[in-house]
Design goal:
6-stranded antiparallel β-sheet; 5-stranded antiparallel β-sheet
Length: 118
Amino acid sequence: MAYSNWGAFVYCNGERRKDKEDVGVFEYHAVLGDGEIRLCGYKCYPKLLRLIDGKADEIDLSQFQCGDTTSYRGVIDGHVFEAYQNEDDNMLGLNLIEPDGKEWTSTCGFEYGAGHMD
């Protein structure tokens, strides 16, 4: 269920993961990943987190910026990730491949996703 006017759909290896949509403990609309590195979406903004001893530390995405201010791509601790924004449409696309090969995808947006479209 979406909170506020924002929402997301999250998939792992093509299967929907409702438990990763609107995750209250992280306060994100989308949380991709099961390991120490998580790629998250809040409204139409990406966040990259490292979990250590139950605490989430944000990783500065600026080091992974791709020429403009709305897309990011990189590899961290064997996790390959990409985040791209479309600010005109208030949408965010997220992709994460974990070291074990799990492929995560998500789209977050305004009046989009769980609770808005299902």
